[in-house]
Amino acid sequence: MDLRIAKTKSRLTAALSVLAAQKPIDKITVSELCKEANVNRTTFYKYYMTPRDIVQESLNQLMNDLLKHIQADRESKAPVDPYPTILHGCKLFHDDKALNSDLLNDMTPVMEVLQTFFHNVKELTEDDIRLLMFISGGCVSYLRYWFMIEPERTPEEAAEGLTKFVPKYYQDIR
After folding, report:
1. 73-89 burial string, b = 16+ CB within 10 Å, else e?
2. pLDDT above 90 covers what percent of the chain?
3. Pseudo-torsion of CA 164, 169, 172, 174, nearest 10°?
4. Domain span holding position 123
5. Which of 66, 90, 98, 113 would give a disulfide with 159, using CB separation of 3.0 to 4.6 Å?
6. What is the pTM of this model?
7. At what angle do helices 83-95 and 97-105 cross, to 10 degrees?
8. How many domains, the chain?
9. Which residues contact 36 (CB under 8 A, 6 or more apart)?
């Protein structure tokens, strides 16, 4: 990606984080976002249609990063340890304040990303799909609890907790 594009998108994402701390993303206007990011509206529309598209891009990036982590783990000869991949995901959620704030209100996009993630990793049977729905729902609930009830917990602590719940399925998809 061109460095100028990356810088523009980074400024828009940072501005969205600032504004999302003040109000829900769906209430943030393109004008407000562009003013905060010091970016022209035309430039914004070159890359996005709505501020929510920035959140979706963050979720897609998260999914791609997690897939890369899983692929690297698959290629490794070391014993399976889901903690590094889960920690990576927790850090991404923790560090992206706009995403974090938005997800407090609606975890559906995370559920969709988790489902897409697992679908991309292996061919799924009916039982896999049921297990996937169960695990995705549990991960979403765990993240919501972390964000809302225990925001002082570090990504490392959250990853340790999540790692207790997913090792069997992680073994299966590897």
Report:
1. beeeeeeeebbebbbbb
2. 26
3. -70
4. 51-173
5. 90
6. 0.67
7. 90
8. 1
9. 15, 18, 19
